[in-house]
Amino acid sequence: MDLTQGTQQEKNARAKKMMLWFGIISLLMGFAGWTSAFIVSSAREDWLSDFKLPTAFYYSTAVIILSSFSYMLAKNAVRKNEQKTASNWLFATLSLGIVFIVLQFTGFSEIIAQGYYFTGPTSNITMSYIFLIAAVHVLHVAAGIISLIVVLVRQLQQKYTADNLLGMELGLTFWHFLDLLWVYLMIFFYFF
Q1: CA distance 83 to 77
Q2: Whose CA is closest to 56, among 101, 115, 122, 116?
Q3: Taking CA atoms, which of 90, 142, 148, 154 is between 20 and 30 Å from 179?
Q4: CATH homologous superfamily for the domain 8-191
Q5: Which three-class secondary structure state does DSSP give residue 6?
Q6: From CA 68, how far away is CA 64, in angstroms rounded?
Q7: Can you name the residues that pair with 123 across neighbouring β-strands?
Q8: What residues of the chain score a pLDDT lower than 50?
Q9: 116 exposed, middle or buried (CB, 10 Å; 0-12, 13-18, 19+)?
């Protein structure tokens, strides 16, 4: 495929998609580095091997998976020209995203209630990694929520049609990435 061919709109869409993928790949590299460091550090004598993940983290996993489905349903509704339905699904996705963040902070509170902190005399390397990785993911979900709000506003302004879904597709791709990243992190923390 010749990337220099096509209309200006097609070239613009390809450029935006490519930039999104560059961003996603760079985020993946960051999280790969942190999870690799987590594995290497697990050989330390002061590593906690019996730590159980907070229950809220499991609930948040279910919530973020549901939010990916609701976002997909919004896109499918736009394709069918069901604008009100699409808006409702985007509101549901936004609500689920907020619930995810609330559950993450609930999980952090559960960890603190067990006496573990990010830094200080009662902190340890295991908890510092878990706090860091989960908190950085929460920051990216916050960025995803901002992009979702932009998509929602544009949807309410009826900017999306079956022929013009680029902004929604970009937001959906980023949201799916955040979803899959969290599922990976939960599996990683569970087994390591």
Answers
A1: 7
A2: 101
A3: 154
A4: Cytochrome c oxidase, subunit III, four-helix bundle (1.20.120.80)
A5: coil
A6: 6
A7: 117
A8: none
A9: buried
